[in-house]
């Protein structure tokens, strides 16, 4: 590539600045080109920025002074074998890479400054094994603020009065940044240099701890690089469009004129964000649709107030609202980012902690000790726990160093919450009762289920910490049985004395794992009043390893016992299908080998339990259930049922820079299956038998919900997609009767995923009805888990005609 030189005028600052000269070069050009000569460094500050393209790979890096920018296009390989032959040929870096590292990344004469420097430094190592010295993260100059907020970026430039707000936000966080162009890259690198010079002039640059990746042990650097890349790609998977479910009616706030709305669904709720805009369709009945744009001004439970750029007449109705832009990073995501920064700045000793090493690193091979299985029985609410449950409880109670980390594998219906409840009661009986016990899970509903189990067995000395956003208006009804034990986040106390008074000696606290990153949790005294010493994590198979960074970073030094409970044959961590490197603790061989298996299920009728045991758990799962009839599973042949696309899914982004495919993924519906579900639901409702409906696709879930509502059948908290049902965003994850709408008729799709199909097939307590096409199940889908079930229940099919007559 012949170096290309061009100029631009900065568009960030209101003050005028000289034109900036930009030179674009290939990485290979650097071998004959002295970068420092072009940059003409007159001071020691060098602004840095990068472009991350497909799958987050760093494709371009730019270095800037106040008047010049050097943009380098990277060779898309870590190394080359130029002039070498054979598999054992010596591997060499591409030409120019040594110059890049020596002259720029390792240059001791200048400091490298960048926004999000940890991500940039780790991308260099992840993609090219390049390290950097004297690297400064600009947001670290505002350590007490949300490092990803637009306000932090603007304040670092001197405040809103010094910059063009929209241009600056777009350049660093909005559309211009996501497009990934070289012009934007040069502007961001120049902006980083300008901010670095401002901080230098105010003596604030010297307070930022430098990053030097040459001093970080290679294993730690690799783990951090992978963690950061996965976090980046998970963020890229967030929807850029959300259809907000709202009521059509609105009112106008008398004080500020904002439109006041009522929302329908928690999952699609409106959120206040500097980085999101609203597209509002409205109009009078039978009138053409009009479009306005605006922002969410405030949200309180189901109520929201929005601003729009046009007058909306009181007679109009809101037809739809779409949120444009990704949700802001969660507190847990921000916390993880800050922890990675702290590790790179050598402020945090994370990997040196004994408990972290036990999780991440296999112990040296040694003579295995014989685990003693106590013959002392464990009882809970008068019932004797089975041998595998009792063994799990004894392992949780064990003080042996080798048992500090304990993994329990619990298939569906094997009593995971029973084990947790029994362990808590036993811990409170022993000398360990002075310890703080924290019961954590991925979802609020899983936490609530554990709390209800504790209450059911007569243990009431606990408190639940829950986010007000989840609790107020939306889910207060879930906590009716235990409402006296709930502390919403808006009631977190400021002073230790008030926390102590609210706890009243309580030593057991329940919350989600993400609650440990809540901005109001650590400043208050809950972890001080109830030290995080014994930790039991439910749903651990759904949590990626990065999710434990806040727990281990903030509280690893106090944890004496860490228990992971889950099932790696059910839902995986979110995103694992697309990102194979995402791992849970169950994917770590040295921990998985030691997992204790709960071997008896009590939920599913015996024939269904036997099928799940043989096809998912290698025949190791026993069943204890009173229902033995094969009629507990019925398949309805929907011959005319066809899968139809209902629209584009949000899962796929069209923004190339975020590294996702430019193909459309469709959400699916099956109208004929929905008709059958209504018929079956009507029969169960008439008999006053409880039921729930599960389907793989959210479009079908919504369609089924509307059909049940039209038929005047129970529809609220009745229809779920598979992920939400098992992940715990529902009031429970089982029901007497489960009705399944498979949806697919042409392609296997969802059914190829054994873990999610296992969830769908293992939820019923008394019976299951599956609506699908027999031809599809015995043909294209025959090799799937669902196809195997259809084969085993070949005598269990019911025709559509018999269904209409109630013969099922």
Summary keywords:
Elongation Factor Tu (Ef-tu), domain 3, nucleotide-binding, 808 residues, Coronavir_polyprotein_1ab, ATP binding, alpha/beta, Nucleotidyltransferase, domain 5, ATP-binding, seven-stranded mixed beta sheet, 26 helices, eight-stranded parallel beta sheet, single chain, 31% helix, Rossmann fold, 4 domains, globular
| Classification by helices and strands | alpha/beta
What CATH architecture of the largest domain would you give?
2-Layer Sandwich
Q: Count of DSSP helices?
A: 26
The portion of residues assigned to helices is: 25-40%
Mean pLDDT: 89
| CATH H-level superfamily of the largest domain | Ribonuclease H-like superfamily/Ribonuclease H
Radius of gyration: 29 Å
Strand count, sense and barrel status of the largest sheet are: 8 strands, parallel
The portion of residues forming beta strands comes to 15-25%
Distance between the termini: 71 Å
Number of domains: 4
The shape is globular
Query: What's the level 1 CATH class of the largest domain?
Result: Alpha Beta
Any idea of the CATH topology of the largest domain?
Answer: Nucleotidyltransferase, domain 5
Number of strands: 34
Biggest sheet strand line-up: 20-19-21-18-22-23-17-24
- Poorly predicted tracts of residues: 80-90, 648-666, 727-732
Pfam family, one: AAA_12
GO molecular function, one term: 5'-3' DNA helicase activity
Keywords: ATP-binding, Helicase, Hydrolase, Nucleotide-binding
InterPro entries: Coronavir_polyprotein_1ab (IPR050534), DNA2/NAM7-like_C (IPR041679), Helicase_ATP-bd (IPR014001), P-loop_NTPase (IPR027417), SF1_C_Upf1 (IPR047187)
